[in-house]
Amino acid sequence: GSCIIKAPGKDYYDICNDTHVVNIYDDQGRLADNGKVILTPLYKTDFPIINYDIGDMASSFTREGVRFITKIHGRLNDMVKHENGESTSVLELRKIPNGITGIAQFRYVQDTYHDLRVELVRDPKDTTYTNEEIDRFFRKRLQELYGDEFRIEICWLDVIPPDPNGKLRCFVCNVKE
């Protein structure tokens, strides 16, 4: 469940300290204000998960012994990689499906610095928009985000399979650096 929540009007996220321990570690494995998020759920007693690396990076501050998250940077392995060496968060990509109905599942797959595949599964109960309209919507939003940086391929699937580890990720980067 959610353990980091942003309330309206706040410029930081509260951590649900009664249900989770959230620590942030730098590259040297020291507690820090910026770095890798490590999580321990306190409610899971049947099969405890201790110091789980969720793959997210975050920035934070501590006030009176309580940590607050100021920014969630996204997963280390779920970053859009650019040819100039920069990496950017996929958070804006994740918002695109919220702007249109008719999609049951989605995933973005970046295969090269210039190829982005959008995998979509139709919601059979919502025919408000055609596949072509949804396709155009995604292409327009991706153009607004990245300009002409990517060749966009839209693939309609019956189902998006999970990764070999069982996770369903909404972004996969296959670019090797």
Automatic annotation (TrEMBL):
<dbReference type="InterPro" id="IPR042099">
    <property type="entry name" value="ANL_N_sf"/>
</dbReference>
<protein>
    <submittedName>
        <fullName>Uncharacterized protein</fullName>
    </submittedName>
</protein>
<dbReference type="InterPro" id="IPR053158">
    <property type="entry name" value="CapK_Type1_Caps_Biosynth"/>
</dbReference>
